[in-house]
Amino acid sequence: MDFFPDPPPPSDDGEHDDPPQPVWSNAPDDVVPGVVPLELVLGRSENAVVLLTGVRAFPTGLAMTLGVRIRGRAQGHDLNAEVFDGPYAHSMGPDWQAGRLKWGFELADGRRATNVDPPVWDEQPNQDHQGADDRLWQPDRPVLNGGGGGGGPRSVDRDYWLWPLPPVGQLKLVCQWMDRGIETTVHELDAQPFLDAAARAQPVWPSL
Question: Residue 81 belongs to what H/E stretch?
């Protein structure tokens, strides 16, 4: 007699694919994006630089990498926490809110998306996020979502997702980091190269 029990029989349910994430929350993982050759200094001061690189265009939005570099004294703030929205080891009062790292986009139709906008999930009608139609709900405003990344005490990179794909016209990028001496800096770009790149995107698994 075997001392150990037999393993349970395999489930009859079979394997189930995870439900797709909402299109506004992150870049699709089954699409090869078109690449936009953009190397942009969003803002710079004597001791800090904010960069935007690695723009990947999808039919539903833009993925990109925000880079932050500092030199000199760290001013008692953890750079990773500042870029990744916490956890903070300092007060989050009005002075910090006014001086923190802020950046974002203004689309040609005047709508804006920034890294300091209220969380979109809080606007979803079904707050338990368990409904079958949750992934179909879409916000009524553009979204700039932060993703993964990493770095050290003086150099941090973080991925971001801008939804939806910007419309034809002027695309503004704005950056401000008063605590690091970066005044409000505005860059005006033509959205067409991003739209052209999105048109080059293709599915990872084309239909046969």
Answer: helix 79-83
